[in-house]
Amino acid sequence: MSPRPPLRRISPAMTLSALSRLWWRTLLPASCTLCGSDAGDALCQHCRQRHLRRETPRCTCCALPLPDTIRQCAKCMAKSCSFEATIVAVDYAAPLDQLVLGLKFGAQLDLAALMARLLAEAARALPAFPRPALLVPVPLGRQRLIQRGFNQALEIARPLGRALDIPVTSRLVTRVRETGAQSLLHPDARRRNVAGAFAVLPGASAALYGRHIGVVDDVMTTGETLDALASTLCAGGAASVTNFVFARTLPN
Length: 252
Known about the structure:
about 250 residues; four-stranded parallel β-sheet
């Protein structure tokens, strides 16, 4: 009899339903998330070649696609952001959006490692990779964490940290106020929604002081959440912040 495959490492807060889905994925043979073929991995080679095409240049701040001759979009040049740069792996569009949805709402935690690998590849491909001293996942509120059972940003940050050889910590900043889903709000309301949502934990300023911090998340839409977190980190002593986000939503 072949040995039982080991359980994957899970969050202590993981719900029973999320644990059940993860257990069945551990028992079943690996298949491609996008096309369903037997792949031995979460993404088959055919889908990699078809959907992970070479990205166009992006704005160094908001990560929206730009022409080759421009490094920063007009909107970012006209406003002040608390973060200095954003690195993304893919656009948030079909079919790659299924990776984000499968992780966040399907508890397919193996997708976090795939997303981290693609994000690490995007970072290494930059001419001058801004290597942070620490990686910090965007924290979830307590209620959202209980409902979901895990923080998808932390699940991406752990393998990303191993790939880039950067320490990961979730003990520097917390979400002190529950916020509504940004995707459901009008763009003008999103900044108000996340204002004052984060706080540096007591005693964490010493670890932040003068350091370059990398913030990890799954999706960037308007950047208001990332800007609010970067502002909190910088107020707590960080010298600069770079975002590491798997997918970037494109303008309508």
